[in-house]
Amino acid sequence: MANNAYAQLRGLHRQAGTLGSLGSLLGWDQETYMPHGGAAFRSEQQGMIAAMAHEKRTSKQVGDLIAECEGDKALLSDPAVAANIREMRRDYDLATKLPGELVAEIARTTSLAQEAWKLAREKDDFGAFSPWLEKVLGLMRTKAGLYGGGGELYDALLDEYEPGMTGAEIGGIFTPLQGRLSGFVAELVGSKHQPVDVLAGMDVPNERQHAFGLEVLRGIGFDLGTGRLDTTTHPFCSGIGPGDTRLTTRYGTTSCLEPLSSTMHEAGHGLYEQGLPKGEHFGEPLGDAVSLGVHESQSRMWENFVGRSRVFWGWALPVAKRHFGPVFDGATVEGVYGAVNRVQRSFIRVEADEATYNLHVMLRFGLERDLVSGALAVKDLPGEWDKRFKVLFGLEVPDNRRGCLQDVHWSCGLIGYFPTYTLGNLYAGQFWEQIHKDLPGLEGEIARGEFSSLLGWLRGKVHAHGRRYRAGELCRLVTGRPLTPEPFMRYLEGKLRPMYKI
Length: 502
Ligand code: ZN
Prior knowledge:
By secondary structure, the chain is mainly α. It folds into 2 domains: 2-148; 167-500, Neurolysin, domain 3. It has helices at 2-32, 39-57, 60-70, 73-76, 79-95, 100-123, 126-147, 153-161, 167-190, 206-220, 258-275, 278-281, 292-306, 310-324, 333-339, 354-373, 381-393, 419-438, 442-447, 452-461, 471-479, 486-500, and strands at 227-231, 237-241, 244-249. Residues 265, 269, 296, 299 line the site of zinc ion (ZN).
C-alpha cells in the first residue's frame, strides 16, 4: 500500500514542481524579453502561479501521504527513498506555515519591486526604491516569524537557502576570514608587482563575445540541446525543468573577457541543473539542488578555479583569438592570465576579483542581518552602506548605483541569500583540493580543453545526489572533512602570491 502512497506523493510533487517551473519561466521571460509595460500583468500572473503551486504543496493529501510513508519501515529501508521523504517532510512543514495569501502577496510584490529597482538603479534614485524595500522587508519579516525556529528572524530566511545554517554560525566563519582577506588584499594591492591589464581598451563586438561564450560552453560540457544562453542586466541561471536549463549573461561591461566570466559562472549553475536527476525525480527533493552554497560552489569553480587558471587559457586563448580577430593577435597566455586575475578594490560585487569578492559579500551579510533585525532602518541604508564600505575597502562610494542599488537580490525578496556566495567559494575550495587528489592529471586535461573527467567527478560526487545529503554532510562525505576556509585560502594564496611576488 505504502508503495502506492509513495508513488502518489511523487506524482503530486511533480505537479507542484511543474507549476513552480511555470513561475520560473515567467521570471526568465521578465528578465530577458518582456517589455516594461508587461510588468503589472506579469506580477498578477506570478501571484496566481505561486498561489497554485503553494496550494499543491500544502494540501492535506500531501501531508497524509508523507505520514503514511513515514510509517512504512520497508519503504524507508532504501536510504535514497528515506532521504526523499525526510526532505519532503521538511518542505511540507515549512510551506504549511505560510498562508497562501502571503505567498501570493510576496510573488506580486517582489515582481513589482524588481521593476522599481531597475528604474531606481538606472536613475540612481534610492528614494524611488526605498518604499519597495520596506514592503519586501516587511513581508520577509512576516515570513520569518511564521517559519519560527527560535533563533533570530534572519536564521529562518537563511535556512531556506542553506538549510541548517544560522547567522551566528556564518558570522563565526566570516569574521576571522574577513580579517585574513583584508590583510591579504592590502598586501596584494601594495605590491610593486602588479599584473598589467593587457585587455584594457580592447573592443570586441557583442556577437563575437557571444559566439566565443557558446564555444566555451560546449567545450566545458554544457548541453545547448537542453539549454540556452540569452542576455540580461543581471546574469542568472534558471533550471526550468527536465531538458530546459537557461543561462543569461551580459555584454558591454568593463572588459572583453568579463562576459565570459559571467557566462562560465552561470554555466556552473547550469551544469549542476543539467546533472540533477530530474528525468526521474523532477519536483522531488532527490531532483533538487542541496543548497545555494553548494550551487554556488559549482558556479564559482567553473568561473574562477577553472576559468581564471593559466591552464584554462592555454586552451581558451586560441579559441578567443579565432572569435575576436586581429584585436587579440598580440594576446599571450601569461598576459591574459595576469589580466583576469588583477586584484583591485572596486565598487561592484559582480565584477570583483577572487580576493576582494568575499568582502563584498560580508558587507551585504552584515547589512541585511541588521535590516531584518531592525537595527538598521531602510532610510539609513545608503549612508550605512557607504560607511561600512569605506572601512572595508578604503573607498568613498560615489553614488548608490555603485553602492546599495547595485544588486537585484533584495528587490526579489532574496534576503539571507548573499552569504551563500562566500560559502560557495569555501565549498569550491575544499572540493577543488579533493578533485586534485582524485584526478592528478586534471591540469593537463584542462590545458587540452578536456573537461569530461572534472565534470564526471562533479556529476558523480555532487550532482547525482540531489538533496539526499545536507550540505555539511555532503562536504564530509566527498572530502572527508567538515567545511573550513583553509583550502580556499590555500588556493587563493597559492595562485596570487607568486603573481604579485609577495
Ligand atoms: Zn551564482
